[in-house]
Design brief:
Strand order of the largest sheet: 1-2-8-5-3
Distance between the termini: 69 Å
Largest sheet: 5 strands, mixed
Length: about 500
């Protein structure tokens, strides 16, 4: 029959499979290395092309991303080890010393680097540019999140959060937290970055954006059915939409004669020149918009979801947060008076809770650099061009840094007991510290203020498993049972 493979073909495949297996096994062993001072760090590259990426991703899906690192640290030492991730040989730097070295040598011995999948999908933007060009663009974009901008954002976030809670939480007995939070963050981001309020427009952009997020950090294999291929198609769709929005914005600018850079992020990127007087091209505007949409979405969504999960499990912690938020709400002269930036800065206990949760369940499992020259670290030689990785997990779970590291303890982050430098790095460090750190803090605290002042909740699935793909996601989406306070003070 035409639909069946010829017997000779099947025989050839059966003969070739054992040969291929032996070849791959030899290739995997060939790159294994023993620990030797002044040589490259010990470790192994794993399988050809895939390296040890699947092992890292598997550990994350099982909810134990730190096990990938712990196993190799136990085998090769606590300083640095060799592996291969996302198609590239990589040296993983461990502990506070590794963090300090990488963050302190930015643009000297090392520079920022991302998996090739992210570079190919995002293009030239603030996180993929290095050297002087990257510095100039970073300085230009820093004012997006300056104190004056955060004051404006607070008012908008307060309004959007109240409307979101009324539409998606009030009158409900159960809420599926993770998708609800993702919708809220994307809705807020569309309004702050692009001035999009129409739910239909938001939904049209959200569909390809979800596919893009799935493949932005992936093995860069461009074949139908792979996450990278789906993300590449989604990126084309998003860029087409953004070009249309930019065209409409330019027409509106020409009609009005001017545009304020404070209108939203898009207007800022369109009308602001860098320190050399150069304006961004349309491609650069789109690339940076896409990058900031990604950066402001997944990590914040996951962190907020994890905070809600922990508050549903730890009633005494919830009561601590509620007491602080009640005090802030009761200081308002009227129920309709919105939050201010000063209000948010008073939420110290709540932020200590968030930081401890980020220690226990970090929103990202690492970041990447690349060696600009040959150098030594921990007695080993790192060759020029080698990919480098740091991970908050190597210090977050270290009992020498955080005693009883598996236990929740918000007092680790009070003013008198802040962690030592480079031991707690959820936002990275050095010149490349997350540009939107204060923006993310504002998003989280404004939302929590309204949520705890309106509702008490319990988790519908006790001890629901959390998997990392590569960010922490509750396996069932975190369903919670909610009940409103009888004396609600906000919204």
């Amino acid at each position: 029959m035409d639909s069946l493979l010829p017997a000779s073909y099947l025989l050839a495949v059966l003969i070739a499979l054992p040969t291929l297996a032996v070849f791959l096994s030899i290739a995997k062993r060939r790159v294994s290395r023993k620990s030797s001072p002044h040589g490259t760090p010990p470790g192994q590259f794993g399988w050809p092309i895939l390296g040890e990426t699947l092992e890292l991703l598997r550990a994350g899906r099982e909810g134990r991303p730190g096990s990938f690192l712990d196993k190799r640290v136990d085998k090769h030492g606590p300083c640095v080890f060799t592996t291969s991730l996302f198609g590239e040989p990589t040296a993983v730097f461990c502990g506070a010393a590794g963090n300090k070295f990488l963050f302190g040598n930015e643009n000297r011995k090392v520079t920022v680097s991302w998996p090739s999948s992210a570079v190919k999908l995002l293009g030239s933007c603030i996180i993929t540019l290095a050297g002087e060009e990257g510095k100039v663009m970073r300085r230009m974009l820093m004012s997006i999140f300056d104190q004056e901008a955060l004051r404006r954002f607070t008012m908008i976030m307060d309004e959007v959060t109240c409307n979101h809670i009324k539409a998606n939480w009030e009158g409900k007995e159960e809420v599926l937290v993770y998708p609800t939070i993702k919708h809220y963050i994307f809705e807020l981001t569309c309004q702050l970055f692009l001035s999009i309020r129409d739910p239909r427009e938001i939904a049209d952009l959200a569909r390809p954006f979800a596919a893009f997020l799935e493949g932005v950090i992936s093995v860069p294999v461009d074949l139908p059915g792979t996450r990278f291929h789906g993300a590449k198609r989604a990126a084309r769709s998003i860029r087409k939409m953004l070009r249309g929005i930019i065209k409409e914005r330019r027409a509106a600018m020409e009609k009005k004669g001017a545009a304020s850079p404070t209108q939203d992020l898009l207007s800022y990127l369109m009308v602001t020149a860098d320190e050399n007087g150069r304006f961004l091209t349309e491609s650069e505007i789109i690339n940076n918009l896409l990058m900031l949409l990604v950066a402001s979405h997944d990590t914040t969504s996951c962190t907020m979801t994890m905070v809600i999960k922990f508050l549903g499990e730890l009633s005494h912690v919830y009561e601590k947060v509620l007491a602080e938020q009640r005090e802030i709400a009761m200081q308002k002269k009227s129920a309709g008076e919105g939050l201010t930036r000063e209000d948010v800065q008073k939420m110290r206990d709540t932020w200590s809770v968030v930081l401890e949760i980020m220690r226990l369940v970090p929103p990202v499992i690492g970041g990447f650099r690349v060696a600009l020259e040959d150098f030594t670290f921990g007695g080993f030689t790192i060759p020029k061009g080698r990919k480098l990785m740091w991970s908050p997990l190597t210090t977050n779970n270290d009992p020498a840094v955080f005693p009883s590291p598996k236990l929740f303890n918000m007092s680790r982050f009070t003013r008198s007991t802040l962690p030592a430098p480079c031991t707690f790095v959820p936002f990275g460090g050095g010149p490349r510290m997350c540009l939107g750190k204060d923006y993310a803090q504002l998003q989280i605290l404004v939302f929590l203020h309204h949520l705890v002042n309106n509702f008490k909740w319990t988790n519908a699935i006790p001890d629901e498993k959390v998997k990392f793909e590569p960010m922490p996601i509750p396996s069932q989406g975190l369903p919670i049972r909610i009940r409103p306070h009888y004396d609600r003070l906000r919204c």
